[in-house]
From TrEMBL:
This is YbaK/aminoacyl-tRNA synthetase-associated domain-containing protein. GO terms for molecular function: aminoacyl-tRNA deacylase activity. It comes from the Bacteria. Residues 26-150 form the YbaK/aminoacyl-tRNA synthetase-associated domain.
Length: 164
């Protein structure tokens, strides 16, 4: 399925599962604040995806961690939850290989067997809809949050960095 553009894979998956969503074409935007303004959505509705590499205790796992765009990730919480001792952001090369997307365009879905999908449960507590760049910096999908959780079925792990 990786020979198809990510955007096409996303819309086919959402259609197959009868998700409630809409597509929005917009000027190139990869920064969360910038794209939220363009979409007319709240910053916290953004589903931000971070590709991480967890290591230690014999673990070597790539993870796609999804959290609200107005929050920061605590990578050490991700490492511990996966069973490792440390986590770091993946290199641009690894991100490209695992997602076929550039930074800022990674949707909250994993289409790669070696990329484990996790989400912080807080993502589902504030808004009925989530918004994300859909494999490209020029298109967003605004998706019903319950449909996202049902279709993507991410492992729920609390990893948002606590405010200090």
């Amino acid at each position: 399925m990786l020979d198809k553009p990510i955007f096409s894979q996303l819309t086919e998956l959402l259609d197959k599962h009868q998700a409630k969503y809409r597509v929005m074409a917009h000027p190139t935007a990869g920064k969360s604040e910038e794209v939220a303004k363009i979409r007319g959505t709240q910053l916290g509705q953004g589903a931000k995806g971070l590709v991480c590499h967890v290591k230690g205790n014999g673990i070597r796992q790539h993870v796609l961690a999804i959290l609200p765009a107005d929050k920061q990730a605590d990578l050490s919480k991700i490492a511990v939850a996966i069973g490792g001792t440390r986590a770091s952001l993946a290199s641009p090369k690894e991100v490209d290989e695992l997602t076929h997307c550039v930074f800022g365009a990674i949707p909250p879905f994993s289409f790669h067997p070696n990329l484990k999908l996790i989400a912080d449960p807080y993502l589902f507590t504030r808004f009925d809809e989530l918004a994300f760049n859909a494999g490209t910096l020029e298109k967003s999908i605004i998706l019903n949050a319950q449909d996202y959780q049902r279709i993507a079925n991410p492992t729920l792990i609390e990893f948002i960095r606590l405010e200090e």
